[in-house]
Write a structure and sequence with these properties.
With 107 residues, this protein is mainly alpha-helical. The chain is built from 5 helices and 3 strands. It has a 3-stranded antiparallel beta sheet with strand order 1-3-2. A hairpin with a 2-residue loop joins strand 2 and strand 3 (70-74). It is flat, with a radius of gyration of 25 Å. The protein starts with a helix and ends with a helix. The mean pLDDT is 88.
């Protein structure tokens, strides 16, 4: 028969391993959401020229953090901005139009 204390120690080690794994996942998720990029990095990330990024900042069309004369871009905010500005497919446009017509009949 196995020693109950050995069994408890095995279970405890398993719990510690799982807690460490969860903590590592939380740390990675927290770090990725706080990632800041400079103008060159965001231009490379989006495939734009730096001048285009400056133009979008000037027009207030891209989320930016200004600290003095420095510009910083949150990767999380840039990703949200990209998704928000996506072009709808024909199917999505038709669904949106049909939904509008159902809510607002012509007669």
């Amino acid at each position: 028969m196995e020693n109950p204390f050995d069994l408890i120690m095995e279970k405890l080690e398993l719990i510690e391993t799982k807690v460490d794994s969860i903590q590592n996942q939380l740390d990675e998720a927290g770090n990725s959401s706080l990632k800041l990029m400079g103008t060159k990095e965001v231009a490379d990330y989006l495939g734009f020229a730096k001048g285009t990024i400056y133009g979008l900042v000037y027009q207030r069309k891209i989320p930016v953090i200004k600290k003095g004369s420095k510009l910083f871009f949150s990767k999380k905010d840039i990703d949200k901005w990209l998704i928000k500005n996506k072009q709808l497919t024909t199917e999505e446009l038709n669904e949106k139009a049909n939904s509008y017509l159902i809510k607002n009949p012509l007669f």
